[in-house]
Amino acid sequence: MNVLFISIDSLRRDVLGAYPDAPTIFDYEVETPNLDRFAKRALVFDSHYAGSLPCMPTRREWLTGTQEFLWRPWGPIEPFDTTLPLAARSNGTLTQLITDHYHYFQHGSNGYYEDFHGFEFVRGHEYDAYETVPKEPDEWLLSQVVNESPKESDDIALTEFTAGTNPTDLRFMNRAQYVRNAKSFEAEEDFFAPRVFSNTAEWLRENQEWDEWLLYVDSFDVHEPFHNPEPYASMYTDEDPRDPEHTVWPFYGRTDAGQSELTDRELDFVRSQFAGNVTMADRWFGKVLAVMDEENLWEDTMVIVTSDHGFFLGEYGWIGKPGRVPMYNALAHTPLLIWHPDAPRMGERVSALTAAVDLYATILEALDVDDTSRGHSNSLFPLIQGEVSHIRDWALYGYWGSSVNVTDGEYTYLRPCRSDYSTGCYSTTMMNPYGWFTPQRPKEDATSGRFLPYSDAPVWRFEGPSVQRHETPLLFDVQDDPNQSTDLSESARELSRDKRDLLEKALTEIQAPAEQFERLGL
């Protein structure tokens, strides 16, 4: 069996026709005909949740089966991890990565691509350290990605080592980098999703001689900046897409205050550019489906399409993935579509609770790899084959050093942390608890030991501050209240205690560090 695993970063459920009942902030239909066509063929998962957020923590879940956010933040593959490509390689399966996701090649993220037999890196997205000229970038695009001098930040990844808004600031993560990278973009084919999915289609055509393969396609679109060519830039707005007063790269935070403040007009424009980016990605995803059709690859290929997380577009007054917002479902409830040629349930829906980490065991089973640990991952095959009605009682999700959240598929319980309690970080490296994208700094107070329940390897332990997203627990009935507009934590106290108990049970079963219970007041 071949496996085509596709991630579309930041893809919200509400833009897909496969999820017509998903809460939405759009007052128009976002066109995704190709993803919708695939969903009709595939099995649609209705209760799929993220785990460790944001980008690279999710990828460690997918690629190693490790739910990491209770032990560490964004960081590298660990020496004791068995990655999907390594397990597949040892099983005689060809592996390939195609991506424009530059975080794989940035500070803090080593080890993710090295085990693939081949990889293609489409250069230039977001802060990718690619182009250095011109020194003074194009003014209109620069104004749309920088927009004004920062007054504050709700992006926990930024530190004093990251750049301000001067285009010639030589510290890390200068937004002008994107403008230099995109300086020659003219035609639609120059943009990122078109290149990633074109390369995917070409690879599928050219690699049919291999007996079995795993192709992992990681599209950084529809992640910001939402820089689009025509017709997508104007598809969902009457505004001038080149108006320098608009932004295609909003700062994270509140939409009503600070550097992230947006007027209703500005917010509508950001939404329109997000939608345009989705439609562009969908069109080029269609090129992959066309090759699957033309080469008759459906008969021996499992296809998985998912996303790592969502993106706030004004819900609850927030934009982006801010560090101090409760983990609402706009971020945590993610799409999952799976095609398998031998499964009887194709074209149906799955209501059972599933989690991002479960894709690891699922892909290993598809490739008939049976000699490696599944970690925290549960295979979805019993659901795909219609053998069971559920595979897990709970799913945990969150950011390291922040709130810890649990769902049973019917309710979400969001448990705040105490900001005066630090959080332990466990790794074989002295990774940065924050400031992930900058060089590691030595941790002089680190201790070493065999602290992990899922590995006998000694690791460093050091501490970082906790970030409080909300002051009191939040409880939502996501079946009757999918918008999570009514907090039940006070009005349904017995139910709230039950979900608190579920969180304690989940943390106990996963053998979370003792300090997690303390910092969460459990």
Task: Please outline the helices and strands.
Elements: E1 2-8, H1 33-41, E2 43-49, H2 55-64, H3 84-90, E3 94-99, E4 118-121, H4 139-146, H5 176-181, H6 192-206, E5 213-219, H7 232-235, E6 253-254, H8 264-294, E7 301-306, E8 312-313, E9 318-320, H9 329-332, E10 336-339, E11 349-355, H10 358-366, H11 381-384, E12 395-397, E13 404-407, E14 411-415, E15 423-427, E16 447-449, E17 459-464, E18 474-477, H12 493-509, H13 514-519
Parallel strand pairs: 1-5, 1-7, 2-11, 3-4, 3-5
Antiparallel strand pairs: 2-10, 6-9, 7-10, 8-9, 12-13, 13-14, 14-18, 15-17, 16-17
Helix pairs in contact: 1-8, 6-8
Characterization of this structure:
The protein has helices at residues 33-41, 55-64, 84-90, 139-146, 176-181, 192-206, 232-235, 264-294, 329-332, 358-366, 381-384, 493-509, 514-519, and strands spanning 2-8, 43-49, 94-99, 118-121, 213-219, 253-254, 301-306, 312-313, 318-320, 336-339, 349-355, 395-397, 404-407, 411-415, 423-427, 447-449, 459-464, 474-477. It is of the alpha/beta class and 522 residues long. Strands 4-3-5-1-7-10-2-11 form an eight-stranded mixed sheet, with helices on both faces.
